[in-house]
Design a protein that fits this description.
Elements lengths: L8 E10 L5 E10 L2 H10 L6 E7 L8 H9 L6
Antiparallel strand pairs: 1-2, 1-3
Length: about 80
């Protein structure tokens, strides 16, 4: 009997975290995972800092320009909600 194959998708993880001096930093990486929950687990296990916020969404051709920077600025009190 053949083993079932699980198709993986590419997910984008955007991290927002604080540097040592308190400024907001961002990191983006691609993750291969079967579903959203698995992608979030991978993203959390490879975070760039001890405390962070991460957004995970499927890779697509849609534009997400400014999404992470805007969230980082709001978190640091420099942007509008």
């Amino acid at each position: 009997m053949e083993k079932p194959r699980f198709e993986t998708k590419t997910w984008i993880a955007h991290y927002i975290y604080a540097s040592g001096d308190g400024s907001a930093l961002t990191r983006t990486r691609k993750i291969k995972a079967a579903d959203y929950d698995a992608a979030v687990q991978v993203a959390a296990s490879d975070s760039p800092a001890r405390e962070f916020v991460v957004s995970v969404y499927p890779e697509s051709d849609d534009q997400y320009l400014g999404l992470v920077r805007g969230a980082a600025m709001r978190m640091s009190g420099q942007g509008d909600d």
